[in-house]
Fold this protein.
Amino acid sequence: MKINRFIKILCFGVLLMFAAALIFIIIAAFCAPDLSKTSSVGKIAFSKDNTVIAYSPAPDTRYRFKTDSNDVDPLYLKMLLAAEDERFNYHLGVDPIAVIRSFSQNLSHKEIVSGASTLAMQVIRLNEPKKRTYFNKLKEAFKAVHLTMFHGRKAVLDDYLTIAPFGGGIEGVTAASLFWFNHLPDKLTPAEAALLVAIPRSPEKIRPDRFYQRAKYYRDKVLKKAYLDGIIKKDILIAATSEPLPHNFSYPYETAFHFGHKLFKAHKEQNLFITSIDSSIQRTLNELIASFKEQSLPDEEIAAIIIDNADHSICAYAGSKDYKSTELDLVQAVRSPGSALKPFAYALAFAENKLHPKTVLDDEAQAFGSYAPKNFTRNFKGTVPADYALYNSLNLPALTVLNLLGPEKFLSVINKNQRNIFLPKGAKAGLPIILGGCGISLYNLTALYTTLFNDGMFFYPKNLINEKTALAYELIEKKAARATFNILKNTAAPQSFIKNRQISYKTGTSYDFIDALSIGSSGRYTAGVWIGKPDGSSNYPKTGYNAAAPILYALLDSLSQQQLKKEDLPLTGALSPLPLPNLEDLTQNMSSQQLKTNKNYAKHPIKITFPQNNSKIKTTDEGYVNVIIEGGQAPYTLYINGIEQNDSSWFKVNKSGFYDLCVIDNDGNESLITIQIFT
């Protein structure tokens, strides 16, 4: 009888507990939690190889980033559950065993000395902070069950990893790992993992920067628990408890700040960005910019961008020399391009068969109406081929070419499908465009230069790793683009650099030395560099050649020289290399043209224009000296102290001293100079 009575009581108790649990779950179903904090997170951008390049805080100014449990070190997750919620995978948001244990301990001490909070309950409390009372904990329990039942355990864990407090305005494991350890939480040492488990228990009292010994005590406590639970071995426990804690947290450097924040503004509803930035290339760019910063004036700035020609994506980006000094994104600033648009006028003229690379042009003083420009050097070269005029950036031939095309047509082609060139307010397209009388951003200008590499096809640069190319269309006929690209390979290397025949580039210097640019391609990459002052004041004597080109050259030289395969093209050799008529002939509808031949060019005597006679020259670090030859009839042969050299554009010396340079052209004419060289 007693046994039957016991069984009845037991069954009644079980039914009562089941009914109570059922009622609890039914009530919980109507207790939807407020998860506004979990959904209100900051923005964070990663490189394509998973390094942080930029970030911004949540709307409440807390550094809190959406964190997924799949992106966190598994060791940390094991330690977290062992220390905070041992039966996480078995209960529905409330742990009955922990509740009974906590209730009995608190009852015996007549105060709250032990909690029974699960991770789900902590997520509720962090989203809806209230005074810790039994009534409030009961409401937390209802909502924790709702969260677990209707969102799932993984969502509970992800929410906790996103909003767990770490003190100092840092919330979530991603922010904590970045700010305390300067790396993402995907790889944590046992000591690091244990510290991240310990701090949220009392974030402002266990911060290692303020309470080092206390933080160490709680970290070691987590480690010992992990050892007792078999998560780590004893040797790891000993090593981890001996590992020092970080003394301070720091804001991680944003390696591509301007690029990341450009995306943040463009995609306000998105919080996580996997960008096309290559962290290795970005690091190379940042190192060059850091060197520039050490030598630059306080108000002088630099901007640079690198585009991968293989997939048309942006792989490195810097809007200024240091985002801490200015958040202005000068890659996007509309500035004067100087002479940097000249190649596109030549390319379009090639495409229309109005010009050939060996067409003879006049570089002589002349007026275009009331407009009488001069070359940057104030000198004129006389009669020159078109290719020579382009890679030497002569102004008068470029104006003649643009006049032949028509400025309006040039502008309409370059602005096809998107606005690249901006004119001053109220201005119409005119010849000064080709010499910098317009505005264009470094971003758009560099994108245009990829067109020359890509045989005339324009691809709008991609920003994100999974982004499709937004625009792709033929801007320039392919043969004309290829011819222009090859011509620019002859542009003289900056001083102290050996000529790299793979680099095709152009410089630009705006009026009064305000803007200095250099843009070009080599192998897989196209890069653009701008130097100047943001306020638009003169940066004399900085030019595209002496300021921006050395950085561009160093940048392209440092990158992989992988050559992308191109289609074999019969270039413009089929075109008749007739000379371009002069402006007076054009105004007479090209009647009675007085043609010139390429032989006129050979009448200019051969001359070594760099180095100058009797000058003193310092070699590069490798011992090289560049040579620039003008006039005469190519090919040239260079002799140093009577010894023939393999290349006429440079030579190498091993010691300082006086050297005789002699250049002989194909017709036997020569130029002699003597220089003093310092190694």
Residues 2-29 form the longest helix (28 residues). The two ends are 111 Å apart (CA to CA). Residues 367-372, 572-602 have pLDDT under 50 and may be disordered.
